[in-house]
Amino acid sequence: MSFDIPRPLYRVALLICLLAVLYLALTPTETVPGLGFDKANHLLAFLVLAWLADGGWPGREQAWKRWGWLLCYAVFIESLQYELPYRDASWFDLLADLLGLALYSGLKWRFPQWKVFPRTPSQPQPLPQATGDT
After folding, report:
1. How far, in Å, CA of 48 to CA of 117, rounded?
2. pTM score above 0.90
């Protein structure tokens, strides 16, 4: 099974996820839906955001821009939470966000054969599989 998702679809999904994360980060609730551990929620959210950004803007030359923008987004969220009386900003949240980005990068580097990772423009298209009907 291959995840040959068109680049615009990654971008739309990234925008939806960015808005969802922002909503969850600013919602005044006692318990935020998620994994039950706030830092794991941050790590998972930024791992998914990294995957979507990588699919929307693939290539090594884009990597620093992708990670830079996502880190700016993390700082933006924490700065908004700092201003809200019912939320708290945390350096540990930023660290968990950074770890999510690093985990995605590490997984992509260590397991490039996994088909869930977007192909970079320089990677060749896979050859079609023979059906055995010869």
Report:
1. 11
2. no
